[in-house]
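Deliverable D2.4 — example input (structure tokens):
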């Protein structure tokens, strides 16, 4: 069964492209049926259109409240028959209403090894703290920001000459490998949310859920 997936973006959409590319390969258990942006100028919209994917813009500035904005998004998601949501650089905090409506069906990629460095400026903070290993995480979305149950992580070494930019670039390479793997896992049911924890299917080998330093 091929799951219908929406990718929600606010910016350049490089993770979105990695999901579109992975899903275009025959046998992948999900199809990217919609790319939705809250910003009309998001660069990812053109990249999605170029790949022949349906796009929608729901500008949060056109809506008086967060709830109103999210109801508009939800209506478009329903119209497109969406089953799973991937947040990919989507820069709006979501209300409990929306998160609970999509519980177990919405995932996010975060540029740190959660639960370290929730929130923004993760690479800068990792350098400030002097960690030697950093990375990225795909997790189910729960009401608390960047706190949801973890599906997959990738780790990279932090090297002495790293800058925020070099570290971000090294991790982005891993993000582009990790996010499609996590989408595969939730789409084919090998990772699912049960009782607030991720349950991995029997027979799941662990391959892809933890990528080692490259
Ligand atoms: C990525 O670093 C992702 O981890 C974070 O926002 C960034 C989005 O980049 N949530 P892109 O729009 O996918 O290129």
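Example output (designed residues):
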């Amino acid at each position: 069964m091929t799951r219908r997936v929406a990718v929600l973006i606010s910016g350049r959409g490089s993770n979105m492209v990695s999901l579109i590319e992975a899903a275009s390969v025959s046998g992948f258990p999900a199809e990217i049926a919609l790319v939705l942006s809250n910003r009309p100028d998001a660069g990812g919209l053109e990249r999605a259109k170029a790949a022949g994917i349906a796009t929608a813009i729901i500008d949060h500035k056109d809506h008086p409240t967060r709830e109103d904005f999210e109801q508009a998004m939800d209506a478009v998601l329903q119209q497109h028959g969406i089953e799973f949501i991937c947040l990919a650089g989507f820069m709006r905090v979501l209300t409990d209403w929306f998160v609970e409506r999509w519980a177990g069906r919405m995932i996010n990629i975060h540029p740190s090894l959660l639960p370290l460095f929730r929130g923004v400026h993760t690479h800068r903070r990792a350098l400030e703290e002097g960690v030697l290993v950093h990375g990225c995480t795909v997790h189910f979305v729960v009401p608390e920001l960047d706190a949801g149950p973890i599906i997959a992580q990738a780790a990279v070494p932090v090297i002495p000459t790293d800058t925020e930019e070099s570290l971000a670039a090294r991790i982005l390479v891993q993000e582009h490998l990790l996010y499609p793997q996590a989408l595969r896992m939730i789409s084919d049911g090998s990772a699912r949310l049960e009782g607030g924890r991720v349950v991995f299917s029997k027979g799941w080998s662990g391959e892809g859920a933890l990528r080692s330093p490259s």
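The mean pLDDT is 95.
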